Amino acid sequence: MSYVSTADINAYLGISWEDAFVAVINASAESILNNLIGTEWLDSWTVTEKIQYPAYRDSNGLYQGQIFYLKKKNPTAITTIDWVSVTINTDYIIEGQRIFLKTPLSRISAFPYRNSIVYTAGYAPIPADIKQGIYIIVWGLYNARKAQGISSFSQDLLTVNYSSTSLMDKILDPKWMTMLNSIVNKYKVPFTITTWADRTTL
Question: 3-class DSSP state for residue 189?
Fold first, then answer.
């Protein structure tokens, strides 16, 4: 599912005859925004995540099998833990990307020794500012294509100046930089998960 429809982009750009090209740059804009934010997607999906069980207590005496982080942005509900159904506010609570379980995870005894968490994450509907980020990038891609590398053109005496600006610099034009950066910073994944310690830092 695209964050923004082709019809909405046509309306934003003020065109109605380039649907195939708009679909291509829409997909590119979504990929660029996801990369800037550090995620694979932002719309709502069901995810299965494998988590290694920790074998220690934290400074508060809580088993670290009770507190962990989910990878995907904006988790909204856990469906199952190790294929057993769970209920929000009864079996667990969600605070941002941090999950607190009422009962610690049970240790998995078979290889690869990982617990399975099935959950829903992402946004439905897509927030308005994410759509605005797509519009900004689409505008840059569309106008970079139309400009063909030309920064200015004069008909009299045929003066043509070619821009040395990269495509990314065109997309992140200074007049849009602040807005796009604020959107990216709002949704950017705040950490890179590499170890269990990363997953259980409070």
Answer: coil
